[in-house]
Design brief:
With 365 residues, the protein is an alpha/beta fold. It has 17 helices and 12 strands. Helices cover 42% and strands 13% of the residues.
Length: 365
């Protein structure tokens, strides 16, 4: 506690920045000294501005480190500081790592030696969602850990696919734990922290999810990971920011190709032209990262033959998901019969409904 309370006290000061804290820590060699040092000594720290010092001194007057420690303990929030042995090694290696990493769930259960960041568009296409789900399900039975930002779109699919595959997953949020953003992911937050991984943040529990915090959050997503997989990305997007951070951190960058006509693939093809690795299956990721893991389970195959009308439906959706009306037009099957057969195929695990009220194949015949 004696050291931790000062790290926590620093982190409770909004807009102070981890860089400022690290400069003080490096200069004085002790986090307690960095907190308690006289104002005259603070201005001598290299890289620290007068404005930053004045701001810190003003805030310090009203902060009690013991109360900060008691507050976090009472909230039941775990944390790691830069001085802790268990602080993630990959994250510590990046420029400006978080001075404190707040944790809910079980980070210790995640294999930090097999971390893959997955990011992409918040308005991802159905195809991108489906392909990403397929790739991550191929890792079922391995110890891979999926890291993402718990945002809408690709982030959500990444976490849900990891859970579906029985993988551990780490969600990095751009606010304190008193906020769930987006609100639609409240159940996903709970599913992750209930024994399936961890949610982490560098922000004090009361800090809001303000816009400038999302790019800051991205450096942690890529920083925790050996490589980053981009599913979809417009030229100007948070995913492209994460891609650039990945390269700055000297980590592997990978992309899932998509339709050239999709605006969300413009960033993907730029990254591929610039040298990012192309990914269409789990083995591509393993080869890029030079990982050897237990062989991913193959895609399920049926041990029975389809009836003629079932085969018609399967043929209609094998290449690309289709809506009910599209299947109706393509197969010529009567409305009532089609409803019944689709239900039976779902029960058999041959097809599934996906976002956009479409049906997709989930086996190879």
């Amino acid at each position: 506690m004696c050291k931790s309370k000062f790290w926590l006290a620093f982190s409770s000061i909004e807009e102070l920045g981890s860089g400022f804290v690290q400069r003080l820590f490096k200069h004085f060699g002790c986090i307690e000294n960095a907190w308690t040092i006289a104002p005259s000594e603070l201005v001598r720290v290299e890289g620290v501005t007068k404005k930053q010092v004045e701001y810190f001194l003003e805030k310090r007057k009203n902060i009690n480190p013991d109360e900060c420690f008691e507050y976090i303990e009472k909230k039941g929030i775990k944390y790691l500081t830069l001085e802790d042995e268990d602080y993630p090694r990959m994250l510590k290696e990046i420029h400006n790592p978080p001075t404190v990493l707040f944790i809910k769930g079980n980070l210790e259960d995640c294999n930090l030696g097999r971390t893959l960041a997955v990011v992409g568009s918040r308005r991802a296409s159905c195809v991108a969602r489906e392909v990403l789900n397929k790739i991550l399900l191929e890792f079922e039975g391995t110890d891979l850990c999926v890291v993402s930002g718990l945002a809408a779109g690709i982030d959500t699919i990444a976490h849900k696919s990891a859970l579906e595959a029985g993988l551990k997953t780490i969600g990095v949020i751009a606010s304190g734990f008193e906020y769930c953003y987006p609100a639609a992911n409240k159940k996903l937050y709970k599913d992750i922290t209930d024994g399936n991984g961890a949610i982490v943040s560098e922000y004090w529990p009361t800090f809001e999810p303000l816009s400038f915090r999302f790019p800051q959050r991205n450096r942690i997503v890529s920083g925790l990971s050996y490589g980053t997989l981009i599913a979809e990305a417009a030229i100007k997007s948070g995913a492209m920011i994460t891609a650039n951070l990945t390269l700055e951190q000297n980590r592997e960058l990978m992309c899932i190709p998509g339709a050239v006509s999709n605006p969300n693939t413009e960033g993907i093809y730029k990254l591929l032209k610039d040298g990012a690795s192309i990914v269409t299956c789990a083995d591509d990721i393993l080869n890029t990262l030079e990982w050897t893991v237990s062989k991913p389970k193959s895609v399920k195959t049926t041990n029975f033959e389809l009836e003629p009308m079932e085969q018609k439906i399967f043929n209609a959706i094998e290449i690309e998901p289709k809506s009910f009306d599209e299947i109706l037009d393509l197969t010529g099957i009567e409305f009532g019969d089609l409803m019944s057969i689709l239900t039976m195929l779902e029960l058999k695990g041959i097809i599934k409904q996906i976002e956009g009220e479409k049906y997709a194949s989930c086996v190879k015949i």
